């Protein structure tokens, strides 16, 4: 019996020379394709050309190099099956015991700005996945390595083969995860190119970012996965500058705060608790914005998450350091701000660009299924603001209504939000009836409700919310409109001199 044989064909040549050297030392004959062979030979290794195995040249610009029975039978033959081994002998095919393949960089190619369709297509690897999948299927006899990070482990297991079988099985699973993701990326790219929005099957693919200590509760295990093409301005791309590892709930809340703060062009501060905004403020300066966000609800912000859309400086950091916050998120922090905030052991600081980016597909699971929808975005310039009451809102009311509308969109339904002076003052979130949400917001706002504005995520089914608003002293209401009983609400607003605006757009959030 001859030496064991390793077939090496890699696009990413990181670490491959050293690995091939070690394989040679372990007694393997190395077979390679064009570019890999060249790299190995330049490093002084003896390499058998794939053409010597296939008795066929590499053709079609590399589209066909390893796609040959002499390769695939050598990979797929079951060594403990006499018929298989007899068939190999009959055809003068030798077994291949180890496969080292990584694929044409399809993901990296399509991530490039302005990549052509032809380039993308040419970067779909065919021969590589075929070998990987064949070797992985026959992992009882073949070791298959798709990730350069595994080279060291594989060498260790070849030197001491007592647990090689277990390793082969793990490597095989890794291969199928890898080729599944590879194909998912190709499928998704072509589906997008064909402008098919909701195809008959949907394959989503994510990459593990980190395992988490636990999930929403300590008895739930959890991990955080990253979209392969996550926008820069997303939480997965945040740089943690200080503090403990993020928890599952931290991640959800931080994502919510980041999403809300992206709504604003002007300096803004957003405090979040349990994914709902508890205090939001905008201002000429970040300090002004933060003061408003803080004063909106100085109780709920405690232990919360605060996001900013401007650099956090010493002045704001000083204020932030006065209370316990789980996380502060900002596009950057000045050195002075970092000096102040890093004194606090328990605060986490996240640096992430804050910009709207492209709207993202939103996925959520239900038992046995997956819901997919567009992100809830609207272009403000395309919004219709219909004044439906006798009284027009004042300029100040307009400003506050538009501000309230932007924040309210991110409050769990049924949502009622009160605002005044570019600051939220009452948030009624996640209630089962609208007037209940209004009452919570009103109670929280107290005296501040007088002269404030109200925003509602969906229409008023009856005039009871207007009644509650009037009792609290609210002067203007913004809501989608569209109820059968809109006329009752409009009548009541006119009676009380409240200005009301219909947007025609609903913003449920479940
Ligand atoms: N067509 C084939 O038969 C084929 N066999 C292997 N490959 C790929 O060719 C690459 C290595 O090529 P080279 O050794 O020439 O640099 C690897 O990414 C490997 O997955 C192929 N290329 C694409 O399909």
From TrEMBL:
Its EC number is 2.1.2.3, 3.5.4.10. InterPro entries: AICAR_Tfase_dup_dom_sf (IPR024051), Cytidine_deaminase-like (IPR016193), MGS-like_dom (IPR011607), MGS-like_dom_sf (IPR036914), PurH-like (IPR002695). The keyword Repeat does not apply. GO terms for biological process: 'de novo' IMP biosynthetic process. One of its GO terms (cellular component) is cytosol. Gene3D superfamilies: 3.40.140.20, Methylglyoxal synthase-like domain. Residues 1-146 form the MGS-like domain. The keyword Transmembrane does not apply. It catalyses: IMP + H2O = 5-formamido-1-(5-phospho-D-ribosyl)imidazole-4-carboxamide; (6R)-10-formyltetrahydrofolate + 5-amino-1-(5-phospho-beta-D-ribosyl)imidazole-4-carboxamide = 5-formamido-1-(5-phospho-D-ribosyl)imidazole-4-carboxamide + (6S)-5,6,7,8-tetrahydrofolate. Keywords: Hydrolase, Multifunctional enzyme, Purine biosynthesis, Transferase. One of its GO terms (molecular function) is phosphoribosylaminoimidazolecarboxamide formyltransferase activity. Pathway: Purine metabolism; IMP biosynthesis via de novo pathway; 5-formamido-1-(5-phospho-D-ribosyl)imidazole-4-carboxamide from 5-amino-1-(5-phospho-D-ribosyl)imidazole-4-carboxamide (10-formyl THF route): step 1/1; Purine metabolism; IMP biosynthesis via de novo pathway; IMP from 5-formamido-1-(5-phospho-D-ribosyl)imidazole-4-carboxamide: step 1/1. Pfam families: AICARFT_IMPCHas, MGS. The IMP cyclohydrolase activity resides in the N-terminal region. Belongs to the PurH family. This is Bifunctional purine biosynthesis protein PurH. The lineage of its organism: Bacteria, Bacillati, Bacillota, Bacilli, Bacillales.
């Amino acid at each position: 019996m001859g030496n064991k044989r390793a077939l090496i064909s890699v696009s990413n040549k990181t670490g491959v020379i050293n690995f091939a050297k070690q394989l040679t030392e372990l007694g393997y004959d190395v077979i390679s394709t064009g570019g890999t062979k060249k790299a190995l030979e330049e490093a002084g290794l003896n390499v058998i050309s794939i053409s010597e195995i296939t008795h066929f040249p590499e053709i079609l610009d590399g589209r066909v190099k390893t796609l040959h029975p002499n390769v695939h039978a050598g990979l797929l033959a079951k060594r403990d099956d006499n018929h298989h081994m007899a068939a190999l002998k009959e055809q003068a095919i030798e077994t291949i015991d180890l496969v080292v393949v990584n694929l044409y960089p399809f993901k990296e190619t399509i991530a490039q700005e302005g990549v052509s369709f032809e380039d993308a297509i040419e970067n779909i690897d065919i021969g590589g996945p075929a070998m990987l999948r064949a070797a992985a299927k026959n992992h009882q006899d073949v070791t298959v390595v798709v990730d350069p990070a595994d080279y060291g482990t594989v060498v260790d297991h070849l030197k001491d083969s007592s647990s090689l079988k277990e390793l082969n099985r793990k490597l095989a699973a890794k291969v199928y995860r890898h080729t599944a993701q590879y194909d998912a990326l190709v499928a998704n790219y072509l589906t997008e190119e064909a402008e098919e929005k909701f195809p008959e099957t949907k394959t989503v693919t994510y990459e593990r970012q980190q395992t988490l200590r636990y999930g929403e509760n300590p008895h739930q295990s959890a991990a955080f996965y990253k979209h392969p093409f996550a926008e820069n301005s997303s939480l997965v791309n945040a740089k943690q500058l200080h503090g403990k590892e993020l928890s599952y709930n931290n991640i959800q809340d931080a994502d919510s705060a980041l999403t809300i703060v992206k709504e604003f062009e002007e300096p803004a501060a957003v405090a979040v608790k349990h994914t709902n905004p508890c205090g939001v403020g905008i201002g000429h300066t970040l300090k002004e914005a933060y003061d408003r966000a803080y004063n909106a609800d100085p109780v709920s912000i405690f232990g919360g998450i605060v996001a900013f859309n401007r650099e956090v400086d010493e002045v704001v950091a000083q204020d932030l350091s006065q209370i316990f916050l789980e996380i502060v998120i900002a596009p950057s922090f000045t050195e002075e701000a970092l000096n102040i905030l890093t004194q606090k052991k328990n605060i986490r600081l996240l640096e992430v660009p804050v910009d709207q980016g492209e709207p993202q597909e939103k996925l959520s699971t239900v038992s046995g299924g997956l819901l997919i929808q567009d992100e809830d975005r609207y272009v403000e310039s395309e919004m219709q603001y219909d004044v439906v009451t006798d009284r027009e809102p004042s300029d100040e009311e307009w400003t506050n209504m538009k501000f309230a509308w932007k924040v309210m969109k991110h409050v769990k339904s049924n949502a009622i939000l009160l605002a005044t002076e570019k600051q939220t003052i009452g948030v009624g979130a996640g209630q089962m009836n609208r007037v209940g949400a209004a009452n919570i917001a009103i109670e929280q706002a107290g005296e501040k409700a007088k002269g404030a504005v109200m925003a509602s995520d969906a229409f008023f089914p009856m005039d009871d919310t207007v009644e509650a608003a009037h009792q609290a002293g609210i002067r203007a209401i913004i809501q989608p409109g569209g109820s059968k009983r809109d006329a009752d609400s409009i009548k009541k607003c006119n009676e009380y001199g409240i200005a009301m605006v219909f947007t025609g757009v609903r913003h449920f959030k479940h």
